[in-house]
From TrEMBL:
<dbReference type="GO" id="GO:0000149">
    <property type="term" value="F:SNARE binding"/>
</dbReference>
<protein>
    <submittedName>
        <fullName>Neuroblastoma-amplified sequence</fullName>
    </submittedName>
</protein>
<dbReference type="GO" id="GO:0006890">
    <property type="term" value="P:retrograde vesicle-mediated transport, Golgi to endoplasmic reticulum"/>
</dbReference>
<dbReference type="GO" id="GO:0070939">
    <property type="term" value="C:Dsl1/NZR complex"/>
</dbReference>
Length: 232
């Protein structure tokens, strides 16, 4: 009976696994099950076998984030950090699933075995995506205004004004009539007037909210400066 060395057996199993994996169209493809069957032949804790297992597991997470990609494309992607970016772009609230994205990054061996560098790069992408959410950005800025040093207040308030304008702009876009309803403009003139009134009400609310916040911040700055003078 012909005996095969352990190293040779690993190579043969990996070769067969990759062939089945690369020939699969989706995670549920029959070839993917054959790839898993090949990997189960080795019960030892082998690094190369584990890498193939993890690559298969990564497909499940990519599928959860609605990333439409062939298994072969996942394998051939040189900069696998872009796959994390695809997840963030495909789902609006994907940045909230921080742990799931970090797990995906581990399965994809982003930055090899450097856990800290991998986590840092993924968290940076998550933070950037989260900061695109105007409400999250607004909360972050208010935290900075209330807890940060006085020298950042002017800049923070300026950014806050811009965010409030962006939020108002988005609300106005929702009230804009779609093209297919333009022909019935006269019939819906009363509704348009109501929408305009709502828009103006929102503008006034934002204006008064901003003015009130500015007064609060100015008062806090004044108190801060007075307290500083006491300790001089």
């Amino acid at each position: 009976m012909l005996k095969v060395s352990y190293e040779k057996a690993i190579d043969l199993i990996l070769e067969a696994t990759k062939e089945y994996f690369n020939g699969s169209r989706t995670l549920t493809d029959p070839n993917m099950e054959l790839a898993k069957t090949c990997l189960r032949l080795i019960e030892d804790d082998n690094i190369k076998i584990k890498e193939e297992y993890d690559l298969i597991k990564s497909l499940q997470i990519l599928n959860e984030f609605n990333v439409d990609i062939l298994p072969l494309q996942v394998r051939l992607t040189v900069d696998k950090l872009t796959l994390i970016q695809h997840c963030l772009n495909n789902q609006r609230d994907a940045y909230k699933n921080r742990q799931r994205l970090l797990t995906l990054a581990t399965y994809l061996r982003i930055e090899g075995n450097n856990n800290k560098l991998r986590e840092g790069k993924v968290l940076e992408l998550i933070a950037k995506k989260a900061f695109e959410d105007l409400k999250v950005k607004q909360k972050c800025l208010w935290f900075a205004i209330n807890n940060g040093p006085s020298d950042i207040l002017d800049n923070a308030l300026e950014h806050m004004h811009l965010i409030e304008i962006q939020m108002l702009h988005k609300n106005l876009e929702l009230w804009m009539p779609s093209p297919e309803f333009k022909s019935s403009k006269d019939e819906e003139s009363d509704d348009s007037e109501d929408d305009f009134t709502d828009a103006m009400t929102t503008v006034k609310e934002i204006y008064f909210t901003t003015s009130r916040n500015e007064r609060i911040c100015s008062k806090n700055i004044g108190n801060f400066n007075r307290n500083c003078k006491k300790f001089r």
